[in-house]
Write a structure and sequence with these properties.
Elements (H helix, E strand, L loop, with lengths): L20 H5 L17 E7 L14 E7 L3 H13 L21 E7 L2 E8 L19 H5 L2
Antiparallel strand pairs: 1-2, 3-4
């Protein structure tokens, strides 16, 4: 397996914690429980909308994040990221749930490895919803070669 050029390794999670969303869905140069992580690379972009959050404001403000991604195949790429990694405390590397978009019910936690044992830094007992998805869709576009051959 090749490392990404110019990127220092962070096996301990000191710079990017193992539970961080970007680490759970973009492992770069690791083997996974399915295939090499390079098989799960997708182009992605999050676009925020609405006013910034103000502490103490009344609920119901229309704000969020529009997410769009392009990948070669819905299954296994996107579906593995969503159903197997983001919603699991022990995959692909362990140390907790995806704190940004994970949707697993029940107790949730994030931990930092160190000293032979993981130290939990955040726990949310019970069925806690951290984000509320309001819609979604899968749209397919032809490959670049299709347009080139027109």
């Amino acid at each position: 397996m090749r490392a990404v050029a110019g990127v220092a390794g962070d096996a301990e999670g000191a710079h990017c914690p193992h539970f961080a969303h970007i680490r759970k869905v973009n492992l770069r140069d690791k083997l996974t429980d399915h295939w090499p992580s390079s098989r799960f690379r997708i182009l992605r972009r999050g676009i925020p909308f609405g006013p910034p959050y103000v502490e103490g404001e009344a609920p119901g403000v229309d704000r969020g994040l529009l997410f769009v991604s392009y990948q070669r195949a819905l299954q296994p790429q996107f579906m593995t990221l969503v159903s197997s990694w983001m919603n699991s405390h022990d995959a692909p590397e362990g140390f907790g749930h995806d704190l940004l978009v994970g949707q697993s019910g029940g107790a949730r936690f994030a931990a930092v490895p160190g000293g032979g044992e993981a130290r939990r830094i955040l726990e949310a007992p019970g069925a806690t919803t951290w984000i509320v998805p309001t819609g979604g869709g899968f749209f397919f576009s032809p490959a670049v070669s299709f347009f080139r051959d027109l």
